[in-house]
């Protein structure tokens, strides 16, 4: 079981998420189901970005896979806490 490591863009918002979602969906279609998302460059996430992450999470769980988030800065972590998604995702700071 190898994790696929992916870097989240600086602004994970409506302009950036489509390409990212397509990449992940292609990987899932090819049999991948374990992902580690690196937020070290990410300084902003909006509701579209959160929605994409929830969709990826659901697909991974359906396939008995995993989704881990790490290196979230305080501002991005605040969004996860406000939306209570910090209770859903495996977040490693």
From TrEMBL:
Pfam families: STAS (PF01740). Residues 20-93 form the STAS domain. InterPro entries: Anti-sigma_ant, STAS_dom, STAS_dom_sf. Belongs to the anti-sigma-factor antagonist family. PANTHER family: ANTI-SIGMA FACTOR ANTAGONIST TM_1081-RELATED, ANTI-SIGMA FACTOR ANTAGONIST TM_1081-RELATED-RELATED. This is Anti-sigma factor antagonist. The lineage of its organism: Bacteria, Bacillati, Bacillota, Clostridia, Eubacteriales.
């Amino acid at each position: 079981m190898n994790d696929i490591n992916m870097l989240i863009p600086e602004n994970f918002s409506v302009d950036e998420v489509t390409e990212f979602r397509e990449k992940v969906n292609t990987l899932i279609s090819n049999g991948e189901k374990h992902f580690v998302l690196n937020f070290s460059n990410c300084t902003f996430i909006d509701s579209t970005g959160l929605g994409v992450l929830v969709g990826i999470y659901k697909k991974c769980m359906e396939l008995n896979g995993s989704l881990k988030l790490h290196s979230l800065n305080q501002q991005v972590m605040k969004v996860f806490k406000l939306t209570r998604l910090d209770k859903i995702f495996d977040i490693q700071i």
